[in-house]
């Protein structure tokens, strides 16, 4: 039987590259996307569908998690909190969604157990993650231990985070090398038609392309 991997795919370039790496490693990929009433939910969902189609991923899950908006406390889910546009600052930014990756990984583990998948892929990036505490390697390792503690003995899930030590420049370079369709991905925190170019996510993305000497092909209001 072919080995399977559940890949969390947000629609951004990090998760798209992570899914491609899973494929290159011989896994049959099961794509999972979460709609949590974030500002760019519609555009991210489109990106997920475009990416999975381009990569030939046939098994997909689209899961709605509306409670994140009820909880609030993040500029991504609470429209009364402005998305920062003055540059990447130290510390945990207001775009952090409380325990988001923990919840995502828990649901991915449930899918993996159902599907008989041995591995979960998540595209977390520690160095360029805007200071999100749930993007740290140590945290993901702790989640792996918790998941295996709470599932069947024969499940034995491994969580792969192939990008965790990479910079955005290295991510862009590797994605281009593996022919990941970056033009189909979306990273902007606040716009769905044209990326703003000034939120933390846009700045990190643009810097990665610039340092690679490449042009980002998605549309920007300013760049």
Structural class: alpha/beta
CATH topology: Rossmann fold
What's the level 1 CATH class? Alpha Beta
Mean pLDDT: 95
Note poorly predicted spans.
none
CATH superfamily: HUPs
CATH architecture: 3-Layer(aba) Sandwich
Element-by-element helix/strand order: EHEHEHHEHEHH
Task: State the total count of DSSP E strands.
Answer: 5
In order across it, which strands form the biggest sheet? Answer: 3-2-1-4-5
Helix content: 25-40%
Total helical segments: 7
The major sheet is characterized as:
5 strands, parallel
The whole-angstrom Rg is 16 Å
Strand content: 5-15%
Termini distance?
47 Å
Strand and helix map with partners:
Elements: E1 4-8, H1 13-24, E2 28-35, H2 41-54, E3 59-64, H3 67-71, H4 100-115, E4 119-121, H5 137-149, E5 158-160, H6 168-177, H7 200-212
Parallel strand pairs: 1-2, 1-4, 2-3, 4-5
Helix pairs in contact: 1-6, 6-7
Structure description:
It is a single chain. This protein is of the alpha/beta class and 223 residues long. It has one domain (4-212): HUPs (Rossmann fold, 3-Layer(aba) Sandwich), CATH 3.40.50.620. The chain is 37% helix and 11% strand. It has seven helices and five strands; from the N terminus they run βαβαβααβαβαα. The chain has helices at residues 13-24, 41-54, 67-71, 100-115, 137-149, 168-177, 200-212; strands at 4-8, 28-35, 59-64, 119-121, 158-160. Strands 3-2-1-4-5 form a five-stranded parallel β-sheet, with helices on both faces.
């Amino acid at each position: 039987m072919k080995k399977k991997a559940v890949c969390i795919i947000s629609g951004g370039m990090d998760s798209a590259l992570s899914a491609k790496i899973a494929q290159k490693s011989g896994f049959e990929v099961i794509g999972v996307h979460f709609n949590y009433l974030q500002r760019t939910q519609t555009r991210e969902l489109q990106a997920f569908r475009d990416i999975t189609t381009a990569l030939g991923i046939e098994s997909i899950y689209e899961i709605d998690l509306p409670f994140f908006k009820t909880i609030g406390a993040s500029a991504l889910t609470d429209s009364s909190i402005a998305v920062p546009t003055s540059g990447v600052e130290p510390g945990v930014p207001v775009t952090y969604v409380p325990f988001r990756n923990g919840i995502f990984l828990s649901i991915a583990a449930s899918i993996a157990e159902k599907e008989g998948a041995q591995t979960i892929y998540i595209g977390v990036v520690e160095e360029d993650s805007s200071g999100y505490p749930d993007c740290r390697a140590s945290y993901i390792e702790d989640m792996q231990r918790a998941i295996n503690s709470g599932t069947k003995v024969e499940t034995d899930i491994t969580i792969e985070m192939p990008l965790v030590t990479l910079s955005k420049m290295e991510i862009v370079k590797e994605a281009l090398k593996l022919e990941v369709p970056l033009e189909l991905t979306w990273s902007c925190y606040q716009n769905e038609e044209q990326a703003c170019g000034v939120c933390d996510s846009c700045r990190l993305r643009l810097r990665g392309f610039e340092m690679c000497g490449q042009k980002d092909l998605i549309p920007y209001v300013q760049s």
